[in-house]
């Protein structure tokens, strides 16, 4: 990103009303694929956008605002996708968001290709942990389906929980 744009982002004042918050989130949303755990970083800010929500930036929201601004100054080195390289899909789920990283191993180094994240829907907030983990995997695989289908070999899925192993080892799946 151009240094002049980065400086403008760093000078962006904290939002004083909903319109200013919407403007900042709209801008930052354009760059979400370059910011790891984007949805986690905006969770407190998006809560002000709900209907009948009172706008008042608390310390947590202000901290997230500044963290998001700082994320623009730290540009991750994203690599180009190569279908011949070993590929890894890493997923991470929290109580309110899903996150994923598509990466490839080149020169014995794990290089990120893309980041993505999204907030959980209200109905998904009620999911059990193992269902939430599986949701994260399915969502990431759908998100990067085109990349994964072009691979010349298989890919690896990494998650921080062992419950998805049950789904892979179950002999009889019921509907």
Automatic annotation (TrEMBL):
Q: Which InterPro entries match?
A: DNA/RNA_pol_sf, Rev_trsase/Diguanyl_cyclase, RT_RNaseH_2
Write down what this protein is called: Reverse transcriptase/retrotransposon-derived protein RNase H-like domain-containing protein
Taxonomically, the superkingdom here is: Eukaryota
Q: Where is the Reverse transcriptase/retrotransposon-derived protein RNase H-like domain?
A: 58-155
The scientific name of the source species is Austropuccinia psidii MF-1
Residue ranges the record marks as coiled coil: none
Task: State the Pfam families in the record.
Answer: RT_RNaseH_2
């Amino acid at each position: 990103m151009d240094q002049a744009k980065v400086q403008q982002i760093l000078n962006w004042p904290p939002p004083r009303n909903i319109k200013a918050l919407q403007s900042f989130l709209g801008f930052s949303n354009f760059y979400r694929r370059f910011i790891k755990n984007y949805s986690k970083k905006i969770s407190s800010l998006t809560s002000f956008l709900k209907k009948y929500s009172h706008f008042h930036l608390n310390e947590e929201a202000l901290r997230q605002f500044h963290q998001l601004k700082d994320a623009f100054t730290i540009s991750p080195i994203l690599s180009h996708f190569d279908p011949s390289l070993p590929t890894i899909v890493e997923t991470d789920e929290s109580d309110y968001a899903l996150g994923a990283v598509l990466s490839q191993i080149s020169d014995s180094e794990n290089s990120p290709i893309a980041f993505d994240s999204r907030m959980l829907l209200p109905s998904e907030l009620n999911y059990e942990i193992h269902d939430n983990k599986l949701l994260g995997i399915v969502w990431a695989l759908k998100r990067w389906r085109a990349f994964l289908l072009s691979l010349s070999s298989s890919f690896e899925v990494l998650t921080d929980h062992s419950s998805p192993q049950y789904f892979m080892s179950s002999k009889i799946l019921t509907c």
